[in-house]
Amino acid sequence: MEYFDPAETWSRDALVHAQGVRLRAIVDRALRSPFYRERLGKTGLSPGDIACAEDVGRLPFTTKDDVRAAYPWGMTAAPREDLVRLHVSSGTTGVPVAVYHTQDDVDAWADLMARCLHMVGIRRGDVFQNIAGYGLFTGGLGIHYGAERLGCLTIPAGTGNTRRQLRLLRDMQVAAIHIIPSYALYLGAMLMDEGVDPRSLPVRIALIGAEPHTEEVRQRIEYLLGVKAYNSYGLSEMNGPGVAFECLAQGGLHVWEDAFLAEIVNPETGEPVPEGEIGELVMTTLIRRGMPLLRYRTRDLTRFLPGLCACGRRHRRIDRILGRVDDMFIVKGCNIYPLQIEQILMSFPEVGETYLIILEQAENMDQIRVQVEIREEHFIEDMRALHGLQRKIAARIRDEILVTPKIELVEPKSLPRAEGKARRVEDRRPALTRP
Ligand code: ADP
Ligand code: ZN
């Protein structure tokens, strides 16, 4: 097996040992920021109290609201003139969050990213097209610098302009792309409309991430584009992409534990969940200088996967992200995540690329209405067949979430689409009655 970085082959012991040493150093570093001076000051903890990785549990949590409140300079731990890069998170769930990097941070991030790309078979000399938004979104520059670090001819294509994307993919013999999963399905469909079979393109590898998606969606992308698709997880607060990434085994995402310390806790109590159970991912940056974050509550739900990965790496794996804690909605007393619905929709071959979950009230009762795009060839079928399909989808969803949704089959390409992260749920219930 070939590795990009010696840290990929570290044993469990070596990883845990390095984490202890780095954790102590990062607590020391964090104390240079006004926020942590105060926060850690209150607990009376000093770097000397951190002897090993497990001592992370003694540190207080940091929340998204903490980072927002510390804006603009409350969390930086390096002199202003050492900061060379600023990113701001997409703001999917509210006010954006600013993150600062020193040159060392930008370099370390590019190394981590290059490691991910190399892990899934991308090599120096391959052409890499980054079909993601540039600008503040970390999936632009973050992936870009990693691909260059690896030695790829890197095309900052951005999103949109399908014809130009196609031309570049063909003319440059692009081997690998990075794209948000919902946009991958959309782009694939648009290429088909142009009379191009995406499977005939030279692309062999797609990195997909930045939004929750199901295994069904991955398989659709692999089939539609004729690629192997690998799950890429990250968040701006931990740099962006390059935090956890799937290897060739496609069985969960390795968290790069030499750079990040991951915990999974009960989102309500903050207590660690038993090994293998689902909870909220909490992360500590172990090497970042510009803006260290200790025990950051990601709000993302996942679990550690048991067992050793066939690829030989001992960095622990997390399961695909099941959604954000905040994505959960409650209807008729049932807790529901959008991905539970997606999983069922995407298992129907008649269903097209996109869907929208609408929460609304009818006669004072909450209800779920799901608008589902149907593929062209099925849309022209007779009413009876369509009604049958509607009923089948509704029944399968009810079995999963215990609430019967109203299913509305809609024409192909009639629902709104995004080139960035897709919006899956629209809550139209009167604000006062929302749980
Ligand atoms: P925002 O939180 O505003 O969307 P980011 O652009 O930093 O800002 O996005 C990070 C978030 O995107 C993560 O916390 C997670 O919810 C989601 N995300 C990123 N990668 C994945 C992935 N591979 N699978 C599921 N969700 C992901
Ligand atoms: Zn592996």
Compounds present? adenosine-5'-diphosphate, zinc ion
C-alpha termini separation: 51 Å
Task: Give the number of domains.
Answer: 2
Shape: globular
Count the DSSP helices: 11
Look at the structure and give the mean pLDDT: 95
Class of the largest domain in CATH?
Answer: Alpha Beta
Tell me roughly what share of residues is in helical segments. 25-40%
CATH architecture of the largest domain: 3-Layer(aba) Sandwich
Task: Give the low-pLDDT segments.
Answer: none
Q: Give the radius of gyration.
A: 22 Å
Strand content: 15-25%
Number of strands: 20
CATH fold-level name of the largest domain: Rossmann fold
Structural class by helix and strand composition: alpha/beta
Strand order of the largest sheet: 4-3-5-6-7-8-9-13
Fold and architecture overview:
By secondary structure, the chain is α/β, with parallel strands linked by helices. It folds into two domains: 1-326, Rossmann fold, CATH 3.40.50; 328-433, ANL, C-terminal domain (GMP Synthetase, Chain A, domain 3, 2-Layer Sandwich). Helix content is 30%, strand content 24%. The chain contains eleven helices and 20 strands. The protein has helices at 12-30, 34-43, 64-70, 103-119, 138-150, 162-171, 181-193, 215-225, 338-345, 376-379, 383-401, and strands spanning 83-88, 98-102, 127-131, 153-155, 176-179, 205-209, 228-235, 240-246, 253-255, 260-265, 279-285, 296-302, 317-318, 323-324, 329-331, 334-336, 351-362, 365-374, 406-410, 425-427. The strands form five sheets. An eight-stranded mixed sheet has the order 4-3-5-6-7-8-9-13, with helices on both faces. α8 (215-225) links the parallel β6 (205-209) and β7. α7 runs parallel beside α8 (215-225) and α9 packs antiparallel against α11. The structure holds adenosine-5'-diphosphate and zinc ion (ZN). Residues 247, 249, 254, 309, 311, 313 line the site of zinc ion.
